[in-house]
């Protein structure tokens, strides 16, 4: 892989790694599982990067790869992440520390979101990231109308979970 492609990937990943952290937070319980999933998503992004054509924003593409990786691993291992044995030591990207104490105030929300199905989690995540319904629909492969309807149903579901 060319040096330019590698540098472009590292730059994009650094700028968008919070996306990956948030997806890891949604699909894991605990710091070790979070780190394992972060690593696996990074590996999958790296493997797929040569095929990234730039037809969408890098962040949209990264969402899709990260969500697909998280959902696939979540379903396969029932919350126990298996990691790939690909050697990425030459392409090390420093992972920023993720402070769980900082997010204590949203712990209840995450617990409620954990009760949602995979698509609902992804939709909530993107909605909370202020993505418009067009980008949400493109990333999840559903129509804009379907994304809006699902989001309204999810809001109702979350209200019932948080205020029984």
Describe this structure in words.
It is a single chain. With 164 residues, this protein is mainly alpha-helical. The chain has two domains: 1-98, Rna Polymerase Sigma Factor, Chain: A, CATH 1.10.1740.10; 102-164, Orthogonal Bundle (Arc Repressor Mutant, subunit A), CATH 1.10.10. It is 66% helix and 0% strand. The protein has seven helices and no strands. α2 (31-48) crosses α3 and α3 (58-77) crosses α6. It is globular and about 55 Å long. The chain starts with a helix and ends with a helix. The model has no long low-confidence stretch (mean pLDDT 79).
Quick summary:
With 164 residues, this protein is mainly alpha-helical. The protein has 7 helices and no strands. It has 2 domains: 98 residues, RNA polymerase sigma factor, region 2, helix turn helix motif (Rna Polymerase Sigma Factor, Chain: A), CATH 1.10.1740; 63 residues, Arc Repressor Mutant, subunit A, CATH 1.10.10.
């Amino acid at each position: 892989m060319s040096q330019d492609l590698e540098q472009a990937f590292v730059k994009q990943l650094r700028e968008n790694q919070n996306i990956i952290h948030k997806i890891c937070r949604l699909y894991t319980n605990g710091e070790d599982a979070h780190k394992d999933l972060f690593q696996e998503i990074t590996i999958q992004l790296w493997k797929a990067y040569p095929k990234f054509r730039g037809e969408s924003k890098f962040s949209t593409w990264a969402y899709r790869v990260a969500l697909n990786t998280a959902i696939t691993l979540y379903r396969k291992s029932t919350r126990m992440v298996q990691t790939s044995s690909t050697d990425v030591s030459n392409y090390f990207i420093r992972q920023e520390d993720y402070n769980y104490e900082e997010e204590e105030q949203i712990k209840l929300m995450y617990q409620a979101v954990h009760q949602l199905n995979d698509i609902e989690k992804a939709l909530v995540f993107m909605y909370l990231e202020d993505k418009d319904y067009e980008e949400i629909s493109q990333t999840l492969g559903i129509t804009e109308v379907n994304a809006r309807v699902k989001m309204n149903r999810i809001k109702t579901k979350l209200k019932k979970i948080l205020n029984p």
